[in-house]
Amino acid sequence: MNNILGNMPPVVKSLLLLNVIMFIITMLGESQGIPMTRILGGYVFNSPNFEPYQIVTHFFMHGGFFHILFNMFALVIFGSALEQVWGPKRFFIFYIATALGAFFLHQLVGYIEVRNIEEQLIAAGYTDLYSLQDKIVELQNGYIQTFNVIPNTNSLVQDYIAGISTPVVGASGAVYGVLVGFGYLFPNTKLMLLFPPIPIKAKWLVTIMVGIAVYNSFQNNPGDNVAHLAHLGGAIVGFIIVLFWQKDKRKFY
């Protein structure tokens, strides 16, 4: 373990340790009844649950073991290569910028969707949205079991509850930025997929993953709890930054 950590560049190592520590703290807190994800996850700006610190804390949170495993594996493999090329300071700036870019694209779209639902609720007769939000918070905290809604608006209220009560968590946006950066600098490097175990060049792997994020961003799948827009936001910001930084510079193999 010491050899593995010792061979990592400093920023990647620090990010890995921070994410793992936060994951452990989250698991311990949740097991004691402390709603860590609700406190530190990132909510849309027009949610009563939103707090400014969530802009940063959300990308050190993860939704489960495989979520953090994939993100940290990608960070170590691809982020280490970028940090060795750019140096610690530039890589740190890149990582934070892509994480924030992912968050703001996801939140912008979420804000618009929630605002649209609010307008429909007002048209349906909910003149006091703050009172409705209070009821939702009380429901979340277990103070009440249910509350009365205006007839024929149940599905609209459920969409509203989901919109303001579902936090985004994870470093996936920044990881997608890292993947794009690696694919740009090392386009012809061959990688071995795990499933299926076939070799593929970095540029094609990144193209496929970003393409999937674009496709899923425009799909309305009720059971899908993956923040595809955050993935896309991180990829877009990562591409813009690396394109600017690498002007008139050669790509690596």
Automatic annotation (TrEMBL):
<feature type="domain" description="Peptidase S54 rhomboid">
    <location>
        <begin position="154"/>
        <end position="243"/>
    </location>
</feature>
<protein>
    <submittedName>
        <fullName>Rhomboid family intramembrane serine protease</fullName>
    </submittedName>
</protein>
<keyword id="KW-0378">Hydrolase</keyword>
<keyword id="KW-0812">Transmembrane</keyword>
<keyword id="KW-1133">Transmembrane helix</keyword>
<dbReference type="GO" id="GO:0006508">
    <property type="term" value="P:proteolysis"/>
</dbReference>
<feature type="transmembrane region" description="Helical">
    <location>
        <begin position="160"/>
        <end position="186"/>
    </location>
</feature>
<dbReference type="InterPro" id="IPR050925">
    <property type="entry name" value="Rhomboid_protease_S54"/>
</dbReference>
<dbReference type="GO" id="GO:0004252">
    <property type="term" value="F:serine-type endopeptidase activity"/>
</dbReference>
<comment type="similarity">
    <text>Belongs to the peptidase S54 family.</text>
</comment>
<dbReference type="InterPro" id="IPR035952">
    <property type="entry name" value="Rhomboid-like_sf"/>
</dbReference>
<dbReference type="Pfam" id="PF01694">
    <property type="entry name" value="Rhomboid"/>
</dbReference>
<dbReference type="InterPro" id="IPR022764">
    <property type="entry name" value="Peptidase_S54_rhomboid_dom"/>
</dbReference>
<feature type="transmembrane region" description="Helical">
    <location>
        <begin position="198"/>
        <end position="215"/>
    </location>
</feature>
<feature type="transmembrane region" description="Helical">
    <location>
        <begin position="55"/>
        <end position="79"/>
    </location>
</feature>
<feature type="transmembrane region" description="Helical">
    <location>
        <begin position="227"/>
        <end position="245"/>
    </location>
</feature>
<keyword id="KW-0472">Membrane</keyword>
<feature type="transmembrane region" description="Helical">
    <location>
        <begin position="91"/>
        <end position="112"/>
    </location>
</feature>
<feature type="domain" description="Peptidase S54 rhomboid">
    <location>
        <begin position="51"/>
        <end position="109"/>
    </location>
</feature>
<dbReference type="GO" id="GO:0016020">
    <property type="term" value="C:membrane"/>
</dbReference>
<keyword id="KW-0645">Protease</keyword>
